[in-house]
Amino acid sequence: MRRIRLRFAGREVEFVNREQALRLIEDWAERGTYPVQVVYGPEGCGKTAWLLQSAEFLKELGFEVIYVNPINKEVLAELSIVDLRGEFMRLVREVISQNALGRLAWLAFDMAKELIKATRGKIAVIVDDAFQILGVKESAIYVKALLNLIEYPPESYERIVTIAATSEGVSLREIGRHRWAWSTPMWNMAKDSFKQLYDQIPSNKPPFEEVWKTTGGNPAMLENLYKVDWNIDEVVNKLIKEKDLSHSFIKKWSNHLGEAVNDPDYLWFNAPEELINELIERNLILYFLPKRDPNQWIDQPPPERDPELGIGKYVAWQTPLHREAVRKALRELT
Question: What is the average pLDDT across 9-35?
Answer without folding.
Answer: 94
